[in-house]
Amino acid sequence: MASFRAGAAVSLCLMTLVTMLSVDALTTDFYAKSCPRIHSIVKAEIKKAVNVEKRMAASLIRLHFHDCFVHGCDGSILLDSIPGMDSEKFAPPNDRSARGYEAIDAIKVALEKACPRTVSCADILAIAYRDSAVEVGLVPEYPVPFGRRDSLRAAPIAEVNLRLPGPDFDISTLKASFANQSLDERDLVALSGAHTIGRVRCQFVRLFLNDPGTNADFKKELARLCAPTVDAFTLQNLDLKTPDKFDNNYYKNLRRGEGIIRSDQVLWSSEGTHQKITKDFAENQENFFRQFIESSIKMGKIKPPPGSPSEIRLNCHQANPRPLIEQVVAVE
């Protein structure tokens, strides 16, 4: 009888780990009782990571974005490849580009010590996104809704390629990409503002040197920085003025024709409501910050496809080992 009760208890624990994943509503107090130190723990880890490398703030912001745009905010971008499943990390938009996995791992380890089997990797991505932006200049520190769960599988590579916006997108393709996620023009312009602390490879800079919306003198400078003799993987700041500060200089740059990639510059060089929004954000940083926060929360609520199996991963790189767990239950 005792062994039955023990086995049942373990089974109930595992069922809770999986079945609670169907909860739809995200709440800012989701971990108030189960992991009250989540904010201080994550903030400390983000501060350490950004102090070591300023670029890490941009990397962690991008990681959450790339996760949410592909099958919803489910931490699938963190999964490693296994037989029969390729990791999203090796899809062309992410390969040798998406990064920050070690920082997420450090946060997960710290949270597992404080509150084991409680905080999902998808939620870690969401709060790391917020704290990274705040660490380099975003104000105020907005409340992050929690309650996301982790997928058991990565999205197919073809799906990653389809869902993520590309640097060569024109304005209509950008709008369609965001509309597919139920995000509008204000969301498009605001979330693009994360490029105020972004980096891009010279291989992409070279693709847009002849785009019509770019300032001629600026093109010459870019051509010098990313000359043919420069390694294609050399990184170039997307904001040459304040590359490590989260501010509205990105939009000011676009109005001067100093957008480095096409998907940035078209926000200003093509006519439409997006151009008016870009102008507003260039003139009023407070409006940009307010909309960035609103759009980030909205993006963070993109749901995985209905019926997707999910859980709270114990290791962000792999789904929980069910066969091993079942053996433990059987022994009990």
UniProtKB/TrEMBL annotation:
Presence of the UniProt keyword Heme in the record: yes
Binding site for Ca(2+) 1: D67, V70, G72, D74, S76, E88
Class of the enzyme per the UniProt entry, highest EC level: oxidoreductase
S-S bonds: C35-C115, C68-C73, C121-C316, C202-C226
GO BP, sorted A to Z: hydrogen peroxide catabolic process; response to oxidative stress
N-terminal signal peptide: 1-25
Cofactor note: Binds 2 calcium ions per subunit.
Needed cofactors: Ca(2+); heme b
Location(s) in or outside the cell: Secreted
Catalytic activity, EC: 1.11.1.7
Plant heme peroxidase family profile domain sequence ranges: 25-320
First-listed, main subcellular location of the protein, grouped into a coarse class: secreted
Gene3D superfamilies, sorted: 1.10.520.10, Peroxidase, domain 2
Entry GO terms, CC: extracellular region; plant-type cell wall
Site (Transition state stabilizer): residue numbering on this chain: R62
Single annotated GO MF: peroxidase activity
Keyword Lipid metabolism: no
Sequence similarity: Belongs to the peroxidase family. Ascorbate peroxidase subfamily. Belongs to the peroxidase family. Classical plant (class III) peroxidase subfamily.
Protein name stated in the entry: Peroxidase
Lineage, uppermost ranks: Eukaryota, Viridiplantae, Streptophyta, Embryophyta, Bryophyta
